[in-house]
Amino acid sequence: MSWVQQYQPLGSVAMSALVAGIPLYILFFMLAVKRMAGHKAAFAATAVAVLLSIFAWNMPADLAIGATLYGAAFGLFPIVWIVITAIWVYNMTVESGEFNIIKNSLAQITDDRRLQAIFIAFAFGSFIEGTAGFGTPVAITAAMLVGLGFNPLYAAGICLIANTAPVAFGAIGIPIVVAAKVTDLDMMKISAICGRQLPFLSIIVPMWISVTMCGFKRTMEILPAVIIAGVCFAGSQFLVSNYVGPYLPDIISAIVTIIGLGLFLKVWKPKQTWHFPDEPPAASRVVASEFSGGEIFRAWLPYIILAVMVFFWGIDSFKAILDKIFLMKFEWPGLHNLVMKTVPIVAKDTPYPAVFNLNLLSTPGTAILFAGLISILFMPGYGFGKGFACLLRTIKQLRWPIATIAMILGLAYIMNYSGMSSSMGLAFAASGALFPFFSPILGWLGVFLTGSDTSSNALFGSLQKTTAQQIGVDPHLTVAANSSGGVTGKMISPQSISVATAASNMVGKEGDIFRFTLPHSLAMLGFVAVLTLLQAYALKWMLP
User: Fold this and answer.
1) Residue 435 in contact with residue 98, Cβ under 8 Å?
2) CA atoms within a 13 Å half-sphere pointing along the CA-CB vector of 496
3) In Å, what is the CA distance from 206 to each residue of 126, 223, 529?
4) What is the per-residue pLDDT for 283?
5) Which residue in 249, 265, 135, 125 sits closest to 198, CA to CA?
6) What is the pLDDT of residue 360?
7) Residue 88 to residue 368: CA distance in whole angstroms
């Protein structure tokens, strides 16, 4: 016998929505105020959500536990599988010494601090965001800039600002994958809409970084390079997200930007090389080139292989072949079609499915695994034994992020299946035609709370869909706006700032970085909010 979702169990829409938000208030308090570890905060919020679903939303306990476990399972596969394999490839490049060659090759391109920031924080950071995500790019790029002699505050702040452009497609597109999964919306359409919002930010981020460092006047000295970087990245981001899918926009955009800007700087140099006023003479900052062209190509080869593999895995016909070899689908026991969604959330009573897909071969995580295995063959002094040991260390390294991701997805699913997310969505529908303006703000809040665009989409994706349906707006737009707005919150989230301070040797000065990035975060959020409102009505032609 099925259980019917309740949307106003406490008598009114407002009261039900207020109580439904309690798990999120707890998450906010524990992360932003108490600054507790992510897995502890996620566990507390999930536990409270389960209790509320049972005692306030009258959901049977077995269904509540089943929905939470179903969400956690999706967190583990395919999401955690992608995260583990992506960071494993990165860790192997570090252990084999190849990553030092990558850093050196980037540092050789220019000694101008403005251009180094664009290359490393923006372009290379986007590449790492695309392959690993989850805080990895800020940690790597901030450490690289400090190693090159950047002021630590600027190194941390610039890397956080630069990380805005690629976050929605980070970690092989996981934020978009999750948004589509928790909302049952078309993943390609969500990807395409994000690809028609974020390029407007991407094209100006290089200039934004430079102006932050040295002001508008000095930025005009490198305007040609700024334009090349912005157009290369934004153009590639639009094309790949709209016509290939959400898995590769960051990786391809970053590669195109690095190559395009690198080639441009071979024929053009700024008239004046800019560096921080308190730096030593240029001669003492320049690092001699230590590696040949062949060594540099070999060092980049794991990521080239990764991009190629993920590209093929994104082709539907290729995925279909892999699924014929191995695909297990099963209905989640004690949950599938046992929850009934009703009016006004859906047009007519509809069973809520719960089908788990174990597509071990066709998931992007497996593409990355194969890329890593092939890459081992080209790493000097490395081998499969070291690679396997590195994989085990990577899993141990990520044990708490793994737990956090699983519990955050469990939280999202219990809120969705119980009707708590829908209760909040009905309350937000009261904002009427203005809701598209608030959609990115919700995403921004979610990323500030969790430090992850993926987690924000899991938390608020269903709410965004429900509210959009209530006010007659395309739900794909509001779900995409949750992700696009979320990227602007990444630079002020406690987790991201903690990573940046650790990488730039500024532990204890988190408040300084927060104050540094907050105005940038709010300005970018305002832009995305206004754009989303316009796309909902006046600029509908911009949507796919």
Assistant:
1) no
2) 36
3) 12, 10, 21
4) 44
5) 249
6) 92
7) 9
Q: Are 491 and 161 in contact (CB under 8 A)?
A: yes
Look up the pTM and report it: 0.76
What kind and span of H or E run contains 342?
A: none
Which H, E and C letters describe 264-293, residue by residue? HHHHCCCCCCCCCCCCCCHHHHCCCCCCCH
Q: Which two tokens stand for residue 511?
A: 């408040």
| pLDDT given for residue 64 in this prediction | 95
| Separation in Å, CA 275 to CA 249, 254, 272, 322, 468 | 31, 24, 10, 51, 48
Q: How far apart are the first and last CA of the chain?
A: 40
pLDDT reported for residue 195: 93
Residue 323: how many CB atoms within 10 A of its CB?
Answer: 15
Give me 512's structure tokens: 């300084």
Q: Which amino acid is at 297?
A: F
> What pLDDT score does 495 carry?
65
DSSP string, 307-342: HHHHHHHT-HHHHHHHHHHS-EEEEPTTTTTTEEE-
Closest CA to 411 of 75, 54, 169, 57: 75
Number of separate helices (H) and strands (E) present in the chain: 28, 5
Q: What was the pLDDT predicted at 66?
A: 95
- Distances in Å between the Cα of 29 and the Cα atoms of 24, 385, 415, 497, 510 are 9, 44, 19, 17, 17
Tell me how far apart the alpha carbons of residues 335 and 531 are, in angstroms, rounded to a whole number: 39
What are the tokens at 214? 């040295």
What the block records as the tokens of 237 is 């981001």
Task: Give the pLDDT of residue 50.
Answer: 96
Q: Which pLDDT value is given to residue 135?
A: 64
Q: What is the per-residue pLDDT for 285?
A: 47
- The partner residues of 329 in beta bridges, in order of sequence, read 357
From CA 414, how far away is CA 420, in angstroms rounded? 8
Please list the residues that pair with 206 across neighbouring strands. none
pLDDT of residue 286: 47
Extract the residue ranges of the chain whose pLDDT is less than 70.
1, 32, 107, 132-136, 147, 279-289, 347, 449-451, 494-495, 498-499, 502-511
pLDDT score at 256: 94
Consecutive H or E run containing 487? none
Q: What pLDDT score was predicted for residue 284? A: 45
Both structure tokens of 532: 């989303």
**Separation CA 229–CA 259 (nearest Å):** 10
